[in-house]
């Protein structure tokens, strides 16, 4: 078994879009995560380093960065998995504007969530009885498969269609729309299908499956987007969707 | 300096399948007009067509034809895979399917090579 190096050579992106990588020496520890490494630099070497995290346990989706060329959630990425040679290169997520250092502006990401009508539109009031949804119904199963997204932005950073097409809603927003399309309690599907079938919507996806490949929760946004394509095509054939 | 010094996330099997699908489509789009031009020679320039067909007997041209067969088959099978993804319920194992498409295409191109040599 190769010996674990005592120190890591860590290159971190510093500055805005026109920044540069700066290299730091960070002690290697057992069970060390990439987020631990970034935190060490900020607390012991350079307190001006900017990055974003909150829960540290893979729930909040705020700590995603580009680690040795791949978008990853850093709190659940062990150094042993990605830096066998003792070298780490950590940059901000791609396809998003850089605010400073490792922190990106997530506003475009969440604006596309809104544009894909990713908000639940209730069909009943609190005075009505709760609808009963069978766990084994096809719609519930489809929603279940996609609903655990934590909005980390990893799929958005990995997607080449996002890179090529600034209007593309992206895998996360479309995946969210798919969960609502399958939510029997929701009443906003007419507007939602119109939004996701428009230019820059689900039909812009090339099915590269990079989103599925990189999703830290092993979700499959490509399958969700394919579902939206089928649902939008069926709505169009029924005359429910305006071209 | 750009942020992405590495492009490791653009190298997995399915990304390569998409790249090959696109490049093969581009290559076929370039090839087809040339192919029709050659076919058009049969109408009014039989001698030139015969000369061209004779030229295609060279081993290097045969190899290029085998590559074209590979590109055509891989584009067909890759396109079918994408059509199935987008029009039917999801099936796992897409990496295996993409690899299978490339393997079948290589076998078809190899069979072509064996037959022409």
Largest sheet composition of chain B:
none
Q: Would you identify the CATH H-level superfamily of chain B?
A: Fumarate reductase/succinate dehydrogenase, transmembrane subunit
Low-confidence stretches of chain B: none
Order of helices and strands of chain A: EEHEEHEEEHHHHHHHH
CATH class of chain B: Mainly Alpha
Strand content of chain A: 5-15%
Number of contiguous helices of chain A: 10
Give the chain pair forming the largest contact, with residue counts. A-B, 32 and 19 residues
CATH topology of chain B: the name is 3 helical TM bundles of succinate and fumarate reductases
The name of the CATH architecture of chain B is: Up-down Bundle
Strand order of the largest sheet of chain A: 2-1-5-3-4
Give a count of the beta strands of chain A, DSSP E runs of length 2 or more: 7
Rg from Cα of chain A: 20 Å
Strand content of chain B: under 5%
| Overall SS class of chain B | mainly alpha
Task: Give the second-level CATH assignment, the architecture of the largest domain in chain A.
Answer: Orthogonal Bundle
What's the count of strands of chain B?
0
**Rg of chain B to the nearest angstrom?**
18 Å
Question: What is the average of the pLDDT values of chain B?
Answer: 91
How would you describe the oligomerization state of the chains in this entry?
Answer: heterodimer
Describe the main β-sheet of chain A briefly.
5 strands, mixed
Furnish the topology, listing elements before pairings.
The complex is a heterodimer of chains A (243) and B (117).
Chain A: E1 7-14, E2 20-27, H1 34-45, E3 64-67, E4 70-73, H2 79-82, E5 87-91, E6 98-100, E7 103-104, H3 107-115, H4 138-146, H5 154-158, H6 160-164, H7 171-181, H8 189-197, H9 210-214, H10 221-237
Parallel strand pairs in A: 1-5
Antiparallel strand pairs in A: 1-2, 3-4, 3-5, 6-7
Chain B: H1 13-44, H2 46-55, H3 59-87, H4 94-116
Helix pairs in contact in B: 1-2, 1-3, 3-4
